[in-house]
Amino acid sequence: MPTVIVNVEYLSKSVFGWEGLPVDENINVDEFYQDSCYKCEIRRELWNKNITAYFSLTKTSEKEKIGLKCDVWETAKNYGKYITFKLKDNDYSNESTTKTKNAFELMRIASTLNYLPEFNLPKNSFDQLRIDLCELIKTNGCGWIGKDNANVIGKKFITDLSKSIWYIDSCSFKTIDDRYKIPEIFTIFFNRAHPENHRHARRSFNSSELQNFYKIVINYLELPWISKPKFSWLKVPLQIYVNNLLKYSDYLIEQKAITLKNQNSLAPIVDEGKAAYIEILDANIWRPPIIVEEFKLLTRSLEESPYWEPINISQFCPNERMRRCRFIEKLKNAFLFKVGKYTYHHGNIQNSVYLWRIDNNSNEEELVNKHYKIRNNLKQTIQIYHTRAMRKEFIDTVELCIGKVEKARIRYIYSTWLEDSSASVNLVTQNIDDRVLLIFELGDPELITDLREINEGRIFKYDLFWEYALKYLEGIAQESILAVDERRHDIFQHLAVAISIRDFQNQVLKICPLNIPTPSLQWIRLQFWPKNPTHKSSLQFTCKLPIKFMVQTRQLRCDHEDAHYASALFRYQKEMAILLRENSWLVFMDDKHRCKVGEPGYPVAAVERGRQVIVSKNKTFQVADHDFTKCGIIPSVTMICDIPCTIEESFYKGQVYVDENKPYLLLYTDGGPDHRVTYIRVQMALIALYLKLDLDLLVAVRTPPGHSWKNPVERIMSILNLGLQCVGLMRNEMSEELEKIMKRCNSMDDIREKSQNEPHLKEELIKSLQPTIDLMEGIFERLTLKEESFKTFKAASDEDIRELWELLLEIDETLELDDRTKKSIKNKEKFQEFYNHCCKSRHYFFQIKKCGKADCNICKPLKSDEVDFSQVHSLPDPIPTIDKTSYKEFSEIYGTITTEQHRPSLKHQQKDKQTNKMGFSPNAQFTKNVGVVVECYECNRWRVLYSKTKLNSIEISNLERYIDTIQYVCGDSFNTLADTEVSNNNDDYESDNVNEIFEKVKINNSLTCNSPMEIPYYSSGLFEDICFQCGKIPEEGDEESNNQVNIEEGYYYYCNECYITVDSKKRRNRKVKLQQSKRRRTDA
Q1: What SS3 class is residue 97?
Q2: Where do the domains of the chain lie, and which CATH numbers do they carry?
Q3: What is the pLDDT of residue 761?
Q4: How far apart are CA 476 and CA 507, in angstroms?
Q5: How far apart, in Å, are the Cα atoms of 814 and each of 246, 353, 496, 620?
Q6: Which of 252, 332, 674, 1020 makes an SS bond possible with 924, Cβ 3.0 to 4.6 Å?
Q7: What pTM value is reported for the model?
Q8: In sequence order, which residues have a C-beta less than 8 Å from that of residue 487 and are 6 or more positions away?
Q9: Average pLDDT over residues 671-682
């Protein structure tokens, strides 16, 4: 006997709790309750109460109200075997005796209510479609439990379904409905996307997009909410709908394959032998009057014609397709005499039917011969449609034999001589073919068939303007407005500020001769490189100028107060190189990022791209999952510049090889730790190089902080990345004993420490890395810059370094290897004497220069000519003009005594440390008000957004969409971003009030890329722990044994690398329990 689970409630309390009771067949709900009252221990006073029955699949799932006359077991099979009987008093007038529902009961009732998603007022037909779908669900008494579910799950479902319906409607609802019937419940939502309301023509169906909509919508059929009984009216039609999308997608793929096969065929698709046939229609003894009347004209025409003469019945057929088909079917009952019938079927292109009268006195042989002759004659009248491959083969053969001929004329010859009836490919081709036909009809070959033939080709009118534009970009502009592409994916420059094209035109005209032809602003814009070369719009650009135009929000950089000062200094150095170009070298130097080298058998990608990597010429390995390595290779890039004759010419030409020793050396570096000219250890290295090369002058200039992009050698880095793409590095295996030592080392510092006790470790490790170094050298030597191949050189050996150190000992024998600071060399009298006599130290450059006196005991004799050297002076410090808007020309101050008193950062050294521009101090509560972090594009650290007031969901959504369009760098402020217009293809984005959001939302602009993570990131409890120093996310397999000890002691989390390198680790003020919340990160 079947069993159901019964619960009885009275005044929101259970009087009989969830027990299984047997149920008889053919018993209704009311009878079952009365029967249960006798069997169960229910108080007698409750027997006659009014009851309401609810059925559900589980105890806590949604309940369905069922009438008391319904069959119990049939209802249980459909709605669940859990039955709840709710009892009510018969007398509703005595409301004072009824207990008030408590808060928990109200919350429980609210959780069972149905809600629908909320949409804004419709702005277009698509918005109205979403609202109508929502109304359909409401009409059928459905919805989602809870407002949050309705606005998240329900809203996404309706939006995705609306998009698929709108796509089908935009392409043609009737096309897909004719082949695969759309369920009737959805047909009312079509015929809303009218092509006349849009700028573009109606688009065609795409199999990929149909499959994509199928995958999106089919996922909803697997969710629990759609399997509930209240959605049963929707589930089956929705299943049919998505299946039809997939079927039509498969149909399109099949048709595309057939079309491609037909186009590549070297024979006509339709063969007359297969498409045509002859049949004999016997004479009829009797015909109905309606047939006699319908075929009266055709019968008279056949009777008047001679035997065996074919007549085309098209002129006798109705125009409507179905009536025409029925007319042809009735031919066998239409005539009192014997008739022959020829049928040719070519799809929808050409269908022909011919009839002729047969002589009854003809024998079988004569009948066959006559029909054969008739078919051959009719075959000549049938149009033939050649394929594209046939026409292409003919044109290629003609051009191979007689050379280039106008294709339009070849097409005419082909279609005329070979009787090709195919239509032109498109409307433009049709117009040209009509002109060719007119030429042959008039017999005048001088007529123009294609107006594009009268184009004069390339116009050289503006060549002088383009020449000076290139000089401006390569010479003047690089010092103020140009930057190497942040993404480093190409070698083209980007405008670093939002300068208008008109400003660019005016700047170029300033350096151009007077009264030269000037192109329009639009024509100048089309000479740039396109923003996205993969877009169709990129075909409009000529790429004459190697530069991309970008708005400021797309490329953000931290500014520095010395940027203009350092740019002027770089210009002075270049002009000094031009002045001394016969006897000087201008060298640009920089170090590329560290290329990680994996352990034996575990190659690691040189650049973090690509899954498969090449580690030798004959082997291919998979990149290892982890990126923590013990060894690394840092390529040093050096570009020897071909010094131009004028400052306007390009400084971006050169090679990395020196074949003669000139007396003057000018260096330009990025100012990193190995090139910071204010460090004594760097200055001592430059002095050693100065002595080694026996130079008369050495000047080393560096870039200001955050402006390493100004170094011309940075452009080479993108070329090196091309070589390192998809390359993996690992070292060779050493002896078993040394490998055991390496396994106990976690960093290069550990390896150096172990090598002191094991003298062979260093030598063997270098040998182990040598094949990897050889591989990288081979890759770099295959690269070129402006058709000049790269050349590689070996890193300095211990012997080379020892030789350079011995040169320093020639100056002062008391120098020691640990003398690397100003304090350590303070008492080195001889070195101080040389330093004060020959050296000139500034914040952004360091100079070593001989005095040129023959009797000097400190300097060596001059290498250059004394007369030439007498014209060599120190590199001057930039001095501002009278109006202080720019710096003086090099020629004005060269040879004068200058100081760096005009350096902006020197003037502001006594000012207080820069504070953030937020207007408040960051804390955990302000972090929770936003709940969004943004990633720095340079250092990949997550930076926190703050707000004094809490943002609503719409503001957070608009904020995230806005941040998706920018590239954030530490130190930037959103105050300027809010004023910059951002373009976005999304129409809804235009309505976002970004300015209002950034009146609330702030970011700490006092941070730099060297700053660790912010404490509110952790104290807010919104985000999971990441490395406090570098921001790295913990990965599976990280060794956290040491970290775990520190975390338990109250320290922040540090990754394996930072745990080793950071000495003073940050301690938490108090432990924060992480909340289970959504982590919103926006990759800038």
Answers
A1: helix
A2: 3-93+100-111 (3.10.20.90), 117-263 (no CATH), 272-381 (no CATH), 388-445 (no CATH), 463-554 (no CATH), 563-869 (no CATH), 924-1082 (no CATH)
A3: 86
A4: 10
A5: 84, 114, 50, 53
A6: 1020
A7: 0.43
A8: none
A9: 82
